[in-house]
């Protein structure tokens, strides 16, 4: 297990506070993560990877809430989203080294402390 639920809740809370977002509810989901107005979820499989990757996934979903607050479509995974995601990740010591096929998600081995 890369990360405990309590650690994830603490990270969600820290990100919300530093980005001036209302605290969303947090849950683990079976397959895909999501970010809605008042909740985010992270898939269980991501939590089973190493801790940096689990943290990355929390940052990814929180980045959607930041983008939405700024009026940017939450389903957009473009350069603006990626810069927000990377900024949040870096605050917590997580580095994204690249994105798989230039898509929205890095491979597990592209995320590290
Ligand atoms: Zn996304």
CATH topology: Zincin-like
List the ligand species.
zinc ion
What is the domain total for the residues? Answer: 1
Task: Estimate the strand proportion.
Answer: 5-15%
| Largest sheet data | 3 strands, mixed
Structural class computed from helices and strand pairing:
alpha+beta
Integer-rounded radius of gyration: 13 Å
Termini gap: 17 Å
| Strand arrangement, major sheet | 1-3-2
What is the level 1 CATH name? Alpha Beta
Please give the CATH architecture.
2-Layer Sandwich
What integer is the average pLDDT? Answer: 93
Question: Helix share of residues?
Answer: 40-55%
Point out poorly predicted stretches: none
What is the CATH superfamily classification? Answer: Metalloproteases ("zincins"), catalytic domain
Task: Work out the number of β strands.
Answer: 5
One letter per element, helices H and strands E, the order comes to HEEEHHHEE
Q: How many separate helices?
A: 4
Which outline best applies?
Answer: globular
In short:
The protein is built from 4 helices and 5 strands; from the N terminus they run αβββαααββ. It has 113 residues and is an alpha+beta fold.
Description of the molecule:
This protein has 113 residues and is α+β, with helices and mostly antiparallel strands. It has one domain (5-112): 2-Layer Sandwich (Zincin-like). 44% of the residues lie in helices and 14% in strands. A three-stranded mixed sheet has the order 1-3-2. Helix 1 (5-18) runs parallel beside helix 3 and helix 3 crosses helix 4 (79-91). The relative contact order is 0.16. The mean pLDDT is 93. Zinc ion binds next to helix 3.
């Amino acid at each position: 297990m890369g990360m405990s639920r309590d650690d994830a809740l603490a990270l969600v809370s820290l990100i919300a506070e530093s980005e001036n977002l209302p605290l969303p509810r947090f849950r683990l989901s079976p397959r895909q993560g999501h970010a809605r107005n008042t909740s985010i979820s992270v898939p269980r499989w991501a939590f089973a990877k190493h801790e940096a990757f689990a943290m990355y996934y929390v940052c990814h979903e929180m980045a959607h809430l930041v983008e939405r607050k700024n009026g940017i479509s939450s389903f957009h995974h473009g350069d603006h989203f990626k810069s927000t995601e990377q900024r949040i990740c870096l605050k917590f010591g997580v580095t994204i080294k690249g994105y798989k096929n230039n898509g929205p998600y890095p491979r597990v081995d592209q995320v590290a402390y």
